[in-house]
């Protein structure tokens, strides 16, 4: 009987531990996503237009607009602009990457991307 109770207790401990790891992963991913969204809001608040972005970038196809910016002890974001070379050259993609870090190690990252159309 003690063996059966011990096996059940071990199974329950294992199941709860796994659920806690999954919940922790979800929390870290959510924090990274919120950080990325903050980066996108930061970019929008800068009111940069296509011409000024293109001038800053020169011949580069990717330009870091906002360097890694900390929101808290464990969360940060960075924002880059990627210029497209498809049919319409005035389109560009803004990519904000949110990070969740612990002691400098990235535990989760989440990218948010938006396609912008430059005005004539």
Outline of this structure?
With 120 residues, this protein is α+β, with helices and mostly antiparallel strands.
Please characterize this protein's 3D structure.
The protein is of the alpha+beta class and 120 residues long. It has one domain (2-117). The chain is 43% helix and 36% strand. Strands 1-2-3-4 form a 4-stranded antiparallel sheet. A hairpin with a 4-residue loop joins strand 1 and strand 2. The longest helix has 44 residues, at 2-45. It is elongated, with a radius of gyration of 21 Å. The N and C termini lie far apart (79 Å).
Helices and strands in order, then pairings?
Blueprint: H1 2-45, H2 50-57, E1 62-70, E2 75-83, E3 91-102, E4 105-117
Antiparallel strand pairs: 1-2, 2-3, 3-4
Q: Write down the Rg.
A: 21 Å
The biggest sheet, with number of strands, parallel, antiparallel or mixed sense and barrel status, is: 4 strands, antiparallel
Q: Could you tell me the mean pLDDT?
A: 91
DSSP strand tally? 4
Distance between the termini: 79 Å
Structural class comes to alpha+beta
Spatial strand sequence of the major β-sheet: 1-2-3-4
In which range does the helix fraction lie? 40-55%
- Uncertain stretches: none
Q: What gross morphology would you assign?
A: elongated
User: Strand percentage, roughly?
Assistant: 35-45%
Query: Please, how many helices?
Result: 2
The count of domains is: 1
Question: What sequence of helices (H) and strands (E) makes up the elements?
Answer: HHEEEE
